[in-house]
Amino acid sequence: MAFMAGLKIRQFEDDTAVVGVPYNWITKNPFKSMYFAVQSMAAEFSTAILIVQKIESSEADIALFIVSLQADFLKRAQSDASFICEGGTLIEEVVQKVKDSDSAETLRLKSIGKDMNGEVISEFQITWSLKKREKNKRSK
User: Residue 85 belongs to what domain range?
Assistant: First the structure.
């Protein structure tokens, strides 16, 4: 779906990810603004790639999934948009905590959607659950 919607990684650094999404016929709803689901997908992607990068660099076998999503839509999205997540060292700390224990941890990250003019169109708070995979239940 991300491919079909045209999501693109615009910036990907150690603590920042920016995911771009075009405003076009596939991302535009009948009310001439961007579908909230497309915005949610871009916000999720901007947070997930930072977490996955930290998990892979830790060499731990950690599963992650979303347990909560909160969103505020502040302005109609009627242009290309970018979703920015700045995870900082918080992600590293949580990944290390999960790697060193057998307990699950939650991690709440913010992704801010901005239009082409830099105006905030939406804000997402995405809570992820991270847990070490059991050795006998690893995915194939």
Answer: 2-132
